[in-house]
Amino acid sequence: MSDQTSARRPTLEAVAERAGVSRATVSRVVNGGSGVREALVEKVRRAVEELGYVPNQAARTLVTRRTGAIAVIAAEPETKVFTNPFFAQQLLGISRELAGNDHQLVLLLTEGAADYDRVGRYLAGGHVDGAVLFSLHNEDPLPDITRRLGIPTVFGGRPGWPGAESDRSLLYVDSDNRGGAREAVRHLISLGRGHIATITGPMDQTASVDRLDGYHDMLMDADPRLIVEGDFTEAGGAQAMATLLDRAPDLDAVFVASDLMASGALRVLRERGRRVPQDVAVVGFDDMANVAELTDPPLTTVRQDIEEMGRLMVRLLLRSLDRRAEGDSAGRPPSSLVIPTRLVRRATA
Fold it and tell me: What pTM did the predictor assign?
């Protein structure tokens, strides 16, 4: 910025003069401090607007000890994050909520050991106020990194490491994966299907475990041949469906743990000459419109509000940060959230 431009930029002193208050009062109002009467707050805000004052972020950080930036860390490779519409919807919710609260999103991706070292160094540098972590796998080092650094963290999905369930300090947002899976299988049973298979997600993720548990809740004695693990991709769903048909050619229904995998499964069923839903009924999970509504035929699926989950993660984190700044006087501590799911019936079941 040139000296001429810098000279034209309104200063705290100019705002104080316009509002008729002290520079210290303006600083407290601009930086979110307390102890200023509401009438003076309004005067300062009006002066800020009239002058077009923009706070100096570096100075603001020194006062508030907040950077205004949040790390959003996906424990997946770039190719998966940028091609899977699930991540696009979740990041959309996170981004919109952060922007609405005047915070900056810093996206960090991890794939190999070097990435975890890089992320750890970045977080240790004090560049962000907190972190949102999602798509974690078992044994992922990210939770230990944020815990060791003391960074406030909210998880996308129920943490699954030993002891996590009893740790009340952990904050997460998840959908009712187990209940949604039960509803899907219950629906298939109501259609008179007697050989119901399932394609799970990766079994090192809690969402996959919970959805398989929901399947077993309804089919406690399910034939192990009817259960095949997938990877939450279209190709993985296709491969798992081919395996199921080879193992159990008499299957007449399949609950698939994601819409992307269900689209791959539908393709294989067509290639094998199986009519959907006449020969094989199919139910997915997610209800991503750009997938479920465009399959042939359109996919019956379990809806979870993916974008809203992203928004809720940010809200939990910001509440946690505010409580840390204000102490116990900031009201009840935030708690984890599990949002409901519902079955959306279309043509496949």
Answer: 0.81
